Structure formats: C-alpha cells, structure tokens
Amino acid sequence: MTDTSPEIETVWLEMWKKVPPAERLRMGCEMFSTAKELATAGIQKELGRDDPKELRRRLFLRFYGTDFTPEESERILRHLEKAVPV
Q1: What is the rounded distance in angstroms from the CA atom of residue 54 to the CA atom of residue 77?
Q2: Residue 16 included in any domain
Q3: Is there a domain that residue 8 lies in?
Q4: What gap in Å lies between CA 25 and CA 78, rounded to an integer?
Q5: Strand, helix or coil for residue 85
Q6: Helix, strand or coil for residue 21?
Q7: Which of 3, 4, 23, 62 has the fewest CB atoms within 10 Å around its CB?
Q8: At what angle do helices 52-64 and 21-47 cross, to 10 degrees?
Q9: Which domain holds residue 61?
Q10: pTM confidence score
C-alpha cells in the first residue's frame, strides 16, 4: 500500500538513481546505525539494567529474529553468548 502517486514515484526513483553508489552505501550504513541506537535504547529501557549479553541477544532477535530457522537462531544466540562484550 502506498499513498505516493505513480508520477512522484517515478521522479523519486530517477533522483535516487543519480545518487552515487558510495553515497547510497553511506546513507544505508547511517540508517542502520541509527536504527541500532534506537533499538538499543529501547531494549535498555525495557531491561532497566546494564546486561550486555541480554542486550546482544535482544538486538539479534529484534533485527534478525524471523530471518533464520529456530535452530539457526539458537545456534547464533549460543555463539553470541560467548562473544566479546559490546
């Protein structure tokens, strides 16, 4: 569902195509960093304490929770528990 007219969508797409790939990558990385900061702040507020292992676990689940099978997620979470603190 979109509220953008096809004409505006076309103009936007043409403008976006003119942005150099390196700039698009930089923008994407900045957006991910911002999303991670916001998710981290929300999780820390939910936890009410400093718990790096639980933070790492919840960040993984928030960003990638449905991207893997339950077995794959459990394997990744076990690995994250052993990882160096954030």
Answers
A1: 10
A2: no
A3: no
A4: 31
A5: coil
A6: helix
A7: 3
A8: 130
A9: 22-82
A10: 0.75
